[in-house]
Amino acid sequence: MEFEQAQTELMNRAYHQFGKTVFAAALMERSLVNAVAQHRHAAANQRGQELAGDAWDKASRDSIEEMMRRLAPHLEKVPGLRERLDTARKRRNHLAHDFCFDRAPDLCAPDPTIRLIAELADDEENFLRLSAEVQVISRALMEEAGIDTAMADALHVSLIEEARQAR
Prior knowledge:
Blueprint: H1 5-46, H2 55-60, H3 64-70, H4 72-75, H5 81-97, H6 99-102, H7 110-144, H8 149-166
């Protein structure tokens, strides 16, 4: 099947937006990994223990649902966050496993493609917003564990600058 140039450009925009949306979903998931690692670190610190192994590696093996279970006491402090994360988890799973097949017909005409792009852009914003909410929890856990968040911020900026200069 051949498409007109305008439709091909819309399809390219849709796939570009899909990539950005899936990346935002991965970022949300990684924020949960970080929060679980910080939770483990804070809990060990309270017990006067040190963690054995890589807390981030261990946390990244958990499903999103399992990470949410581990973080339940912290998520419950933010009204509706657990429910929003669960909805986002289901949406992320749909995007990863079914979306491209279910929505392929929408790419065949301009109006459905434009709606698809807008839908994906909304999903991207939602995943990024949830990631930011979880990051607030991570920062609180870092502070609870005695981690200097200003130093962590400086390291983050340094890593971003290194990446920009790596070209």
